[in-house]
Amino acid sequence: MKKRALYIGFNRKYVNKFLDLALSVISNCFDLTHYGPGFSRESEVILGINNWITNQEEYDIIFIDPAIVIYEDKIKKEEFIYQSKMNVLQYSYDEFYDNVESYKSFFFSSEKIKVIIGIYDYHVISKKTINYIITSNSFVIDAFGKNLNNSIQNIKNIYGHNDFYKRSIQEHWYEFEQNFKERIISFPHAVFTNEFVFTPLSKRKIKFNVVGVFYPERKQAAYLLENKLRIKSFINQLVSYIKIKTGLNQITDEKLELYFHRYNKKIATSRYVYCSGSPLMYPVRKYFEIPSKRSVTIGWPCNGFEHLGFKHNKNFIVAKNNKELELAMSRYSEEELQRIADEGLKLIWHKHSDYARTAQMKKTFDLIFQGKFKGSYWENGNYILN
């Protein structure tokens, strides 16, 4: 019989699928109950977490929404509303503010096994939030962990000096990972099995594409797009910028589904797709999405590149500037390219799909319940439990 798990949070959808993936995997491991606005009946939400829980069967483990963990009362409502524009919310802003502090307090004081789903803008996370995580005595489902993150100085040395690093970038999360390895459940991005595409490269009309936000390195790579694609990409970026500035970018279910469709189609109809993780070299979801579509992934290695199982010329083509990109896209035969694409898909299917994460997490939680878990990490393409 599965152990019982409780997730406390707010029902929302976002472009980044990390939270959806984590909850899906957790539901495969446990008999999972969702509690909170957008999940529960209005009467249950009004009752409050402390009163509601008294009428429930005992839970073995509690998970919490990352939005609750990073919440600080200094955030003004107007700022919160602006930051939420790219989320499809199944609750009102008032419901968030009426409940977030009580949920945060309940989780903190609970004596159950506790796990924080940790997906944030890691480079701006506050010291106050880190202190909450530490003193709550929680485990953390971390998109990085040992071998998948790096210090800003090391990243500068690899990437080169750039105006990007003049921004306010904090190392609190990196320091937490270094000091509390026994709390870290390393859970990098992964792909749902229904997202995989198996179309061979010979059936694809577009030679090269660039997807996602135009970070400096992606902006440079976009100069290699065919004229038609480059103009279309520029217009899309301009429209997005105008919508953000004018407040017209409120996302809806329909807009989000259309975005996913167009985004996935761009990858699935292209032979080469450029990949990078911003000047911070994060192992973002694109490193897993692109090869899952059987496209040739080409671009920058990320933090933990080889530890995640990526290898140059085997399942990924490393090219760090436009000269290297052009050279790479002219040197491989059709057969070699298809082999690289196939090896990429195979890696994601076996190591970084939702079914693979479920198997990894079942072993992880077994150790947690036995009191034997000492942290986990990725090394040379394998998930390692301490």
What letter string, H or E per element, gives the SSE order?
EEHEHHEHHEHEHEHHEEHHHEHEEHHHEE
Q: Based on helices, strands and strand pairing, what is the structural class?
A: alpha/beta
| Biggest sheet: strand arrangement | 3-1-4-6-7-8
Using only C-alpha atoms, the radius of gyration works out to 21 Å
Query: Into which percentage range does the β-strand content fall?
Result: 15-25%
Mean pLDDT: 90
State the end-to-end distance.
26 Å
Give the tally of structural domains.
Answer: 2
Which descriptors apply to this entry?
single chain, 386 residues, alpha/beta, Rossmann fold, 2 domains, six-stranded parallel beta sheet, 44% helix
Describe what you observe in this structure.
It is a single chain. The chain is α/β, with parallel strands linked by helices and 386 residues long. The protein has two domains: 4-190 and 353-385; 194-351, Rossmann fold (3-Layer(aba) Sandwich), CATH 3.40.50. Helix content is 44%, strand content 15%. It has helices spanning 18-29, 42-47, 49-52, 66-69, 77-83, 93-109, 127-135, 152-159, 172-179, 216-221, 227-246, 253-268, 286-292, 322-331, 334-351, 354-370; strands at residues 4-8, 12-14, 31-35, 61-64, 87-89, 113-118, 139-142, 184-186, 206-210, 270-275, 296-299, 317-318, 376-379, 382-385. Helix 7 links the parallel strand 6 and strand 7 (139-142). The longest helix is centred in the middle third of the chain and has 20 residues, at 227-246. The model has no long low-confidence stretch (mean pLDDT 90).
